[in-house]
Amino acid sequence: MKLSRFWICLLALLLLAGCKPHAHGEPCGPASRELTAMDTYMAMTIYHQPREEAEQSLQQAVGLIAELDELLSVTDTDSELYRVNHSGGETVSLSEETQALLAEALALCKSTGGALDVTIYPVVRAWGFTTGDYRVPEQEELRALLEKVDYTQVALTEEGVTLPEGMELDLGAVAKGWTGDRLMELFRSAGVTSAIVELGGNVQALGTKPDGSPWRVAVQAPEGGYAGALEIADKAVITSGGYQRYFVQNGETYIHIMDPASGRPAETGLHSVTVVTDRGIMGDALSTALFVMGREKAVDYWRFRQDFDAIFLSENGTAAITEGLEDCFSLCGEWEDRPMEIIRK
Length: 345
Ligand code: AMP
Ligand code: MG
Prior knowledge:
Elements: H1 2-19, E1 31-37, E2 40-47, H2 51-72, H3 80-85, E3 91-92, H4 96-111, H5 121-126, H6 139-146, E4 155-157, E5 160-162, H7 175-189, E6 194-199, E7 202-206, E8 215-220, E9 226-232, E10 236-241, E11 246-249, E12 252-255, E13 258-259, E14 264-265, E15 270-277, H8 280-293, H9 295-305, E16 309-314, E17 319-322, E18 329-331, E19 340-343
Parallel strand pairs: 17-19
Antiparallel strand pairs: 1-2, 2-6, 3-5, 4-5, 6-7, 7-10, 8-9, 9-18, 10-15, 11-12, 13-14, 15-16, 16-17
Helix pairs in contact: 2-7, 4-8, 7-8, 8-9
The structure holds adenosine monophosphate and magnesium ion.
């Protein structure tokens, strides 16, 4: 007992001694920050950077997340998005940030044939997902709300955005991916070469681990624990799954990802879709959209675009990956011996 305490003290001293000369300028261990923003747990770690610089970058990152949250929150009455959603049909001028995000989000709504639809908010709210007052709306109510869901009616020009009266935007499907991209930009311009951020179901990695090996990113299993692990460098790994937010009523589970065609939670037999891309905004938009499409349509879409990879975990306990992930994804834990299909072009 005494001996082990001795060794722990010695180890601590050695670690401290090892760090001290590096404190001003030389890389010294990882620097991390955890926070809750955008209604989500977030964590960021910078490696291989002088401590003071890493801390400064993390501080800036926290500020950037807060700024984006203030712009894009759908519930905060002071947010830019709130102003847009309560504009009564008037044109609202936007910050450069929101303008750029919205332009990209609308392009992704179009590209996914409306599986992603940023005007879904009236429906999302009716189910109680932003307020926590969960309920199952009547078919009639959904039919009326769906008249307010149509991204093609959003007019975005240099003057700003104009929404038909009663229409409301929800950027929840893309905001975290956008935020991840902005964090990567910030870190890169601060000279960071090795960092990883986790924003809810989104993981974005800058470079490799400090020793040059790839990051290992786990993919969650429906029953808890992990179904598989990915080895990546300089990528966004973004997962959408019903398990991330849902409520249960009379034994039925209702998830937060909506099918804009029906106004009801998407039911496509998928547990989750993970998209691996260079850019978080695209990964975030596509993971939500592919979940809505279901596996078959999602695979057609992948064949058509070919600029991302995906992992599909089905509710029936099977896995499928697109061929680009063949050498960097493996099933693990209870999923290790399950069938895994490789989807080819
Ligand atoms: P994600 O977690 O990225 O899949 O995004 C899900 C969130 O985006 C939900 O909590 C809703 O706020 C919103 N959302 C749900 N369904 C859709 C959809 N089909 N298109 C756009 N946003 C959606
Ligand atoms: Mg998304």
